[in-house]
Amino acid sequence: AWAQNVVKFTAGPDTIVINKHIYGHFAEHLGRCIYDGLYVGEDNKTLANTDGVRNDVIAALKNLHIPNLRWPGGCFADTYHWKDGIGPKDKRPSIVNTWWGGVTENNSFGTHDFLNLCERLGAEPYLAGNVGSGEVQELADWVQYVNFDGKSPMSDLRRTNGREKPWKVKFWGVGNEAWGCGGNMTPDYYADVYRRYATFMADNGVGLFRIASGANSADYNWTETLMKKIPHGLIQGIALHHYAVINWGKKGSSTMYTDEEYFKTMQSAWFMNELVEKHAAIMDKYDPEKKIALVVDEWGGWYDVEPGTNPGFLYQQNTMRDAVLAGMTLNIFNNHADRVRMANLAQTVNVLQAVILTEGDKMLMTPTYHVLEMYKIHQDAKLIPIQLTSNDLTFGQEKIPAVSAAASITTNGKTHVSLVNIDPKKEQKITIDLADKRYGTVHGRLLTSKKLRDFNSFEKPAYIKPREFNEAQLKGNQLSLNLPPFSVVVLTLE
Ligand code: AHR
């Protein structure tokens, strides 16, 4: 017999909202994410598209209610000169995408294409500015081009290119991975650079949300230096990047992983919990009122590319390992919603832990997609703080919690609980203590599959998909259920 896992609703603060921007996505000019994945060109007669963007992908993304989309990188952002991507497409210069496969980029998907796509998706754009190889003026001009309503050199240029009204872009990244591909800077040097660039980004009444390039995983000194050196009036968010990786030199297959590789991926993903707590504790020292957000603008599982594909394109499959990884990570973000107010899964289509994969005219939604779709109920809902006692998942001497959970209540009074069991073999018996809350009904949705290593293929694109889950039992203020091995469940209580 196995022990019992207990989720207890607590009487903690009930003022924290799970910011919908935790559910953000990321689309870089990398491999087949933008070209082929999203954008197939206005002249494409075989694939149904709107302004060159695949209609099937637009529909799938709309169904996720994606709150924000980060673009154009990533490492690519610090090589990107936005003026190359505006105006008549046949006049745009080509550049070489030096970070990702050394391919030629023709700039046919640029600022207008991206911002119009965001409007169509109902997502807020999150533009990553070029700080590594671009000038202060170039970033200041970009802000004016997309945000200025009146008459100015840049807003006139925007109008010449067919857009009268500004898009009013709020979210701006001031560089990306400044400690690495964004310029190999020290934190002290970057803090000064940040101050300069941020100063010249005019607000224009938009309420700019400027996000500093953040730490690489556990580089706590990076966060500390930025919090200390950047005047708080100049910064609204600090980023953090952490990928679930077994070993950067030998990342392992996305589908044919060993039990040990599975455990190590989960261990690396669970490390996110410690990361957000430690980075948040540093931020608390300098910003006790929590005005500055921790923005985890790159997260997800990173494996070897699929055999036979371009190593620079980072194309990987997506199994139930990715589904439980996503569910667990989002539970971590939800439970730290007081400080983690934005995050971006890397990446949207055909790259890393993608929600969508495409092949010619075929498209599929990955298990990760379904988790994001199931969890959309948490967006902008009020967090219900919980205490969780979980069994361990062990491998040799190592252990991590097998169960993770998060709870929230919507403005119309529906309570949702998301639960994940990462144990690949054992089901987990769960008791949820609802404290003083009373409900009449419970129903739910479950995502799992026959085998942990199952995935959706172009031959069987809907092999893994959520199904109804009506096995939770409600008695008074106690809810009990069994979570199958490697599964994600979202319950609705009314
Ligand atoms: O998401 C892929 C890459 O990972 C991004 O371009 C970079 O920021 C990170 O190193």
From TrEMBL:
The entry's family comment says: Belongs to the glycosyl hydrolase 51 family.
- State the species of origin: Olivibacter ginsenosidimutans
Question: What domain of life does the native source organism fall in?
Answer: Bacteria
Q: State whether it acts alone or in a complex, and with which partners, per the record.
A: Homohexamer; trimer of dimers.
Per the UniProt record, one Pfam family is: ASD1_dom
Q: Where is the Alpha-L-arabinofuranosidase C-terminal domain?
A: 297-487
Q: Which UniProt keywords are given for this protein, alphabetically ordered?
A: Carbohydrate metabolism, Glycosidase, Hydrolase, Signal
**What's the protein called, per UniProt?**
non-reducing end alpha-L-arabinofuranosidase
Q: Which InterPro entries match?
A: Alpha-L-AF_C, ASD1_cat, GH, Glyco_hydro_b
Q: Which reaction does it catalyse?
A: Hydrolysis of terminal non-reducing alpha-L-arabinofuranoside residues in alpha-L-arabinosides
Enzyme Commission number, as recorded: 3.2.1.55
